[in-house]
Amino acid sequence: MPHASLQEYVADFERLGDECAYVHRRGYRTERWSYGRIAGTAFQFARELESRGVGKGDRVVIWGENCAEWIAAFLGCVVQGAVVVPVDSFAREDLAHKVYQQVSAKLLVCSRPHALREVAEAIVVLEDLAELVRRHAKSGYHAVEVTSGDTLEIVFTSGTTAEPKGVVITHGNVLANVAPLEKEIRKYLKYERWVHPVRFLNLLPLSHVFGQFMGIFLPQLMAGTVFFQEALNPAEVVNTIHREKISVLVAVPRMLQSLREKTEHDLEESGALEEFRRRFRDSEGRHFLRRWWIFRGVRREFGWKFWAFICGGAALDRETEEFWGRLGYAVVQGYGLTETTSLISLNHPFRLGKGSIGKVLPGREIRLASDGEIMVRGAGVATAYWNGRETQAVAGEEGWYRTGDIGELDAAGNLYFKGRKKDVIVTPAGLNIYPEDLEATLREQPEVRDCVVIGLERGGNAEPCAVLILRDATAAAAAVVRRANRLLADYQRMNTWYVWPEEDFPRTSTQKPRTSTIREQVEAGLASGAKQNMDASPLTELIERISGRRQSQLSAQSDLDADLNLSSLDRVELLSALEDRFQVDLSETKFASVNKVADLERLVRGREMGRVEYHYPRWTLRWPVRWVRMIADYLLLRPAVFLLGKPKVVGRENLRDVLGPVLVVCNHIDDVDVGFVLSALPSGLRHWLATAAGGEALEALRTPAKTRGIFGRMYDRVQWALGVALLNLFPLPREAAFRKSFAYAGEAVDKGYSVLVFPEGHHTTDGRMRPFRAGAGLLAKNLGVPVVPMRIDGLFEVKKAGKKFAPAGQIQVRIGAPVRFDRDDDPAAIAQEMERHVTEL
Predict the structure, then answer these.
(1) Beta-strand relationship, 373-378 and 401-409
(2) Residue 806 maps to which CATH number?
(3) d(Cα 605, Cα 261) in Å, to the nearest integer?
(4) Does residue 687 sit in the same domain as residue 591?
């Protein structure tokens, strides 16, 4: 039976018990929450709200990244009857504070970086939520009675042209939209057991209603698992889909476009693009199982369990929809607005209407006005706009809400999106031009990476102007527009164009281009006849945030090191931010050689994508190899270490109660350091240890140069295989590309392994310890496990004397007491503190 109230969903979470509900990254670790844990924490948070005097109708602002604690806080408010006010994680601090004041909130639940000083006395940090509410009972909470007309949340939208405004959404609004989907999903639950669990990778923010539908309400109907991640660069998304056996990707259309570009770029790099395009043309009309086989190479990259995209928030271009559909994936589009509680229409995953945004869901009506504007009414339409203590009705005459979007309906009832009403360009001849039609034609041109068509005012009417982001800055925009015009009707042709001088358009949190901002800059640029400067560039905004330098202080010739004082950690943060912001994969090797802002701009604009060369063999973390490693430890490693020089171990009692995982840091003297560290550790840690080794040297063994000859290459690969299998080595490059190494270390810790690193990065050359690299502090901060300092003494003297063996006890291994660091600590300070602990040994 359909749910009668949203509070019943919390009971469903409790009923599903140990089923995995949410998975999200925190630092380099992966956290997994069961449905039962979510329900228990929600009940605890409801009791926490009660203890703070927050009751039915009181507003609670939630401002943070997607995570399990966000869901628990949301459901806790549902149980207590409090009104949720979600704020986008990327919103500015002044906007969040303004929203907090406008709704007269009683509590702010936020991520640690978002804690507002102005409301310090009324803050709950999401990362600390579970610990904070631990004192309360997890048992079922007597829910405050709510009706369908009670307010559930106030969602502040950030449109492309207007100031944010709060939309009041009731419990009944959400139930009206979930009910028809719940009814349809239940028809297919008998088949779900064959693919259980259905895993969703949800890249939509929970601060948006559609993100809540796909992150809270719908997955639990099939006991599905929802994965959250912040990284939006295509390579990371594909890796997650493959590694976690994702079934469905939930994202905005721009992500589907970025994944398509990545796929084509990978094929081009391997020399298979032309053959792929030939097969793509020949596969039209083939059965989907046949197409699965034809494009099995691409499907292998995503994993065999992945089968569908669900996208919303903007219109998906037909070319991208056709691309993924041809490869055998279901592309499910939905249409709706915040005012309609997200969904108006939705494509059925097994009965897709190509090019459409689906059929209208039961329980709502639509009609098209004389000018084609989509009008909707029904129980899903929000009740009002929030305006302080007063509210303004959303719906108009007879309950019809004017969406401001232009649409078409076909005979089968499929709805087609034609564009925003206010974006429709009316020519002097009185003809309507829809920008989406022109943009689709421009995107067919190979030189165009992205585009927006805007209307420029001309004597009370308008003419279309193409705003282009080109793949190659040297491409001729005139030729691109000329070819596109040949495919358009005479009245649609574009006589004006503008090459956007930045790497991406300014966008809303749902990745829609901000057309008003774009129009202002285009008009100014065309009027002056010159390109805009770098001041408003998304690139310089990122540099400003990381370096602390104002945009007015930046120029194309600003040096990243000398002028901006970017540390190695700043470079890591900047690289990650660039990949996420522009949804590209940047070559870390090339990034390491970038010196000036202009070089960085060319790197991003050229989208010089490249795969990391280092390999991370995850089979070494599985149980058969671990048993082999344990046997080799007793039969080979320990006898060899005792033969070379039985070490004297000091401080092993410091690890008596330590079960792991831990991060072991040690000074670095020689390649045999690993053996001495392993021999000193107790068996519980020794047999569950992953060791970071020089990435460059390890990769040289894994992929030896052809000049080595066939036998030399075979010998190198055998060395690599023995090293990673028997010593559990993984690459940690010295100069760059260590982000993936740190992520791998996080995976190892999640599986119960401890990690050994040598923070100096190089062997000592004079017996003195080198300074610890700040990257080790970053690793310690994001792993969140105790740090065990260790020190090897006496080995350098043996090495300097050129001896192969040492008397028993000459070499000493000292073990210090485990140390913990807070996630708020500065990575460089953590590295210095670890160095001090090792030095003092």
Answers:
(1) antiparallel
(2) 3.40.1130
(3) 14
(4) no
Of 554 and 8, the structure prediction assigns the larger pLDDT to 8
Residue 182 has pLDDT above 60, yes or no: yes
Per-residue b or e along 743-764, where b marks 16 or more CB atoms closer than 10 Å to that residue's CB:
bbbbbbbbeebbbbbbbbbebb
Nearest to 668 by CA among 742, 755, 749, 766: 766
User: Is residue 543 left, alpha or beta, with left meaning phi > 0 and alpha meaning psi from -120 to 50?
Assistant: alpha
Q: Is 83:156 a contact under the CB 8 Å cutoff?
A: no
**Spatial distance between the Cα atoms of 670 and 806, rounded to a whole number of angstroms:** 14
CA distance 256 to 323: 10
Beta sheet of 20-26, edge-to-edge order: 29-34, 20-26, 225-228, 199-202, 248-251, 308-311, 330-335, 345-346, 359-360
Partners of 390 in beta bridges: 387
Q: Which amino acid is at 139?
A: S
655 and 677 fall within a common domain: yes
Among 553, 574, 605, residue at a domain's last position: 605
Task: Tell me whether residue 669 is in a domain.
Answer: yes
Domain match, 820 and 685 both: yes
Torsion of CA 276, 239, 114, 7, to 10 degrees: 100
Cis peptide before 617 (omega within 30 of 0): no
DSSP 636: I
Whether the pLDDT of residue 767 is over 50: the answer is: yes
pLDDT of residue 796: 86
In a domain, 671, yes or no: yes
CATH classification at residue 432: 3.30.300.30
Cα–Cα distance for residue pair 832/825, rounded to 1 Å: 12
Domain hosting residue 596, numbered range: 535-605
Q: Which two tokens stand for residue 458?
A: 């001309």
Helix axes 538-547, 568-582, angle to 10 degrees: 150
Residue closest to 198 by CA, chosen among 307, 353, 84, 39: 307
Same-domain status, 491 and 638? no
**What is the C-alpha to C-alpha distance for residues 45 and 79, in angstroms, rounded to an integer?**
9
Angle at 812 between CA 811 and CA 813, to 5 degrees: 130
Asked if residue 598 and residue 679 are part of one domain, the reply reads: no
C-alpha 319: how far from chain center: 25
Task: Let me know: does 336 contact 204? Beta carbons within 8 Å.
Answer: no
Question: How many structural domains does the chain have?
Answer: 4
> Which residue, of 545, 580, 605, is where some domain finishes?
605
- Judged by average pLDDT, the poorest of 207-216, 249-258, 352-361, 704-713 is 352-361
pTM of the model: 0.79
Is residue 446 included in any domain, yes or no?
yes
For residue 556, what is the domain's CATH number? 1.10.1200.10
Same domain, 671 and 575: no
Peptide bond into 197 cis (omega under 30): yes
The answer to whether 810 touches 549, Cβ cutoff 8 Å, is: no
Task: Give 377-390 pLDDT, tens digit per residue.
Answer: 888 888 888 875 55
Query: What is the rounded average pLDDT of the residues 481-491?
Result: 85
Paired strand residues for 376: 366, 401
For residue 34, the domain's CATH number is: 3.40.50.12780
10 Å Cβ neighbour count for 458?
Answer: 11
* pLDDT tens figures, 309-356: 998 766 777 888 889 989 989 888 888 888 888 788 887 766 666 667
Run of H or E including 455: strand 448-458
671-707 as b/e: b if 16+ CB within 10 A: ebbbbbbbbbbeeebbbbbbbbbbbeebbebbebeee
d(CA 832, CA 642): 33
In a domain, 370, yes or no: no
Other CB atoms within 10 A of residue 622 CB = 10
Q: Are residues 601 and 626 in the same domain?
A: no
737: left (phi over 0), alpha (psi -120 to 50) or beta: left
Same-domain status, 71 and 111 = yes
